[in-house]
Amino acid sequence: MARLPRLTVPGYPHHVILRGNNRQAIFLDDGDFRTFLALLGEYAQTAKVAVHAYALMPNHVHLLLTPEAAQGLPILMQALGRRYVQHFNRRHRRTGTLWEGRYRATLVDSDHYLLRCMAYLDLNPVRAGIVGQAADYLWSSHGHYVGLRHDPLITPHALAWALGNTPFAREAAYAALVRQGLSTDEQRELTESALKGWVLGSPTFLSSVQKQTTRRLSRNKAGRPRKISRAPDS
Question: What is the pTM of this model?
């Protein structure tokens, strides 16, 4: 099946996945992680893209982003990918490609999936066996949302603010949400939708988005992606 063109709609959150070529490591030390985050912050500001959440894994990256304009997300990802490869190759004395093709992305229905998508990102290093709990991982936005540190890169979505009336209440509510975890079906939905480009949302959400594009949005009904035997990335 031919790959669908990427769909970017201003004002909507997008779950983005960027993977290393042949699953190779894209971060070899703390300096690489810090450089990637610095570049993400620089280009997100230039492209006017809000960064709601992130998880930098050894061989892939998950981002939750909302662009102000249709070209904001492509501009950000192209500049970020190009500049980071230059940094990585120069620092580690290598040449050639680093990424497995183009980035993958899909729209996320805020009301039904945004907070679950954030939890999915935070739990990536736990599922991978890198840490025992999300709070122990330095290279995700989890620490910001549970009050362990302030991350100037993050622009919380309105739904994150709505978790409580005070910072402590919001942090406690979000920590509880992540501890609750996700079902296997939810993990598959979130992974498959981003990798395949199917919009993840309710029938009402899909109907609203469909009015803005002629592109097909889902394989099946109501934003319920076909289940697969296993997810390509965690």
Answer: 0.89
